[in-house]
Structures are given as structure tokens and as C-alpha cells.
Amino acid sequence: MAVSLEHLVRYHEDGNDFLFQIVTGDETWVHHFTPESKAASMEWKHPSSPVRKKFKTTPSAEIGSYTTAGIRNKSTGRKERF
User: Within 10 A of 18 (CB to CB), how many other CB atoms are there?
Assistant: First the structure.
């Protein structure tokens, strides 16, 4: 909440010039890999719990693009600008 209050105070002092300095969007590539091993799948359970069946697994690798939207340079968000 302190950051929001600081932004509000700076907006009050600097107006729209302050808003144009804020970076609100970027595109980032994220590599995701989830290995499945005996150690990774171990969990705490009661001694009388039934034994879990073992399944054949294959590691997966996913590459995704995550984009965050933001305010364009010197734009107020009016539809004529987009």
C-alpha cells in the first residue's frame, strides 16, 4: 500500500509526466521443465496407506510467451490510439 500512496503523491505533484515514466509491460520468454523422479514424487503418508502404482513418465519441456499489457507511450487509453 505504501507504493500506491507514493505513486498517488507523485502523480499529484508531476501529473501525467510521472505516468509516462512508468514501465507497465514487457514480453518475457519462460522455459518450464518438470522432471518426474522417485524423489520428486515422494510424499508423507500414513503407514497403512496403500502403495501407489508407478507410472511410466516422460519429462516435458514447455516454452511459453507471457505478455503483460501496459500503457503505450503518451497514451491515455482512448480507443482512437489503439
Answer: 14
